[in-house]
């Protein structure tokens, strides 16, 4: 390794193959010893870049850019939207609802998280969005968790209840999966932008 000083007295280092090998070995030791989140503190903050990979579809590129936005967001969380509810709640896969790995796979595939932090629990529903939206016009009932204003389905709906068992941030979240069939309780809110009342969250599936 050679050391050089330029006229401004800054120090430069010639990286030799042996030095590079040593640095790589030390970094491997550091990663094995220190928790990953401490390493994140050492990293220079990432800057947003536009994804121009020609191999990515427009849909995948947009998802990746949204993922980066979530990673660096500092303001309030995004308001609920019709599309977000469809994506995160409505079941659109052929995986059996009784599969014990259902939540582990679907929570990642549908990118269900709170700014990359693991969601403590979540529900997936096997119903059309239109059927769930109609529930918002049902009379108010008391939710099973104590929230005063919920809407209950008029028909039996199947779904999956996901409960976090380990992990802090995606993609290291692990969940238990419980198949449920019964009355669904949801919350709704009015959206001025579209002039509609939309479902916001699933509170519970009361088994029959």
UniProtKB/TrEMBL annotation:
**Sorted alphabetically, which keywords does the UniProt record give?**
Disulfide bond, Glycoprotein, Secreted, Signal
Is Coiled coil among the key words of this record? Answer: no
Give all residue intervals belonging to the Ribonuclease A-domain domain: 78-195
Q: Does the keyword Nucleotide-binding apply?
A: no
Subcellular location field = Secreted
Q: Give this protein's Gene Ontology molecular function annotations.
A: nucleic acid binding
An example GO CC term for this entry is: extracellular region
A Pfam family cross-referenced in the UniProt record is RnaseA
Cross-referenced SMART domains, in alphabetical order? RNAse_Pc
InterPro entries, sorted: RNaseA, RNaseA-like_dom_sf, RNaseA_domain
Among Gene3D superfamilies, the record links this protein to: Ribonuclease A-like domain
Tell me which stretches of the chain form a coiled coil. Answer: none
Main role? Does not exhibit any ribonuclease activity.
Q: Which PANTHER family match?
A: INACTIVE RIBONUCLEASE-LIKE PROTEIN 9, RIBONUCLEASE
Family note: Belongs to the pancreatic ribonuclease family.
Q: What is this protein called?
A: Inactive ribonuclease-like protein 9
Q: Which organism is it from?
A: Bos taurus
